[in-house]
User: Which sequence fits this backbone?
């Protein structure tokens, strides 16, 4: 059995401001996809959640990549979002609660063990780079 590693990041210039997500999905040391795109005018936290949801949607839409997978591990540099999805912090914002409900529904549809881990920003350079490239209109 193997694992899927998903690096996510979201950012908004101005917070709120122009926002984008970055998602890099890796299986067996190969990238399945790298996603960087704008998501309109939003907050950093909204963008962070949106990146996780984008990763989950990719898995749902590409079920063949889940064959022989026993675990999916998300890595994110947002301590707040990692703590909220792990149930350590409450989600007070109605907008973010809606995103958390969408995330939970996608988890149920994927039916694999999913782990969310907080990492340092310098360990998340690929996803961070995708966010900045999207915001700079380079992808």
Assistant:
């Amino acid at each position: 059995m193997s694992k899927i590693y998903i690096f996510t990041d979201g950012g908004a210039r101005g917070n709120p401001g122009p926002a984008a997500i970055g998602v890099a999905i890796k299986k067996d040391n190969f990238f399945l996809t790298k996603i960087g795109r704008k998501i309109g005018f939003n907050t950093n936290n909204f963008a962070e959640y949106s990146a996780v949801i984008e990763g989950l949607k990719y898995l749902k839409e590409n079920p063949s990549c889940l064959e022989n997978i026993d675990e999916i591990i998300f890595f994110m540099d947002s301590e707040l979002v990692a703590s909220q999805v792990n149930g350590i912090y409450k989600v007070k914002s109605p907008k973010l609660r809606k995103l958390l409900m969408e995330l939970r529904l996608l988890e149920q549809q994927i039916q694999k063990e999913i782990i969310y881990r907080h990492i340092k920003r310098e360990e998340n350079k690929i996803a961070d780079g995708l966010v900045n490239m999207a915001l700079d209109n380079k992808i």
Notes: The CA atoms of residues 56 and 105 lie 10 Å apart. The two ends are 34 Å apart (CA to CA). The first strand starts at residue 2 and ends at 12. The mean pLDDT is 97.
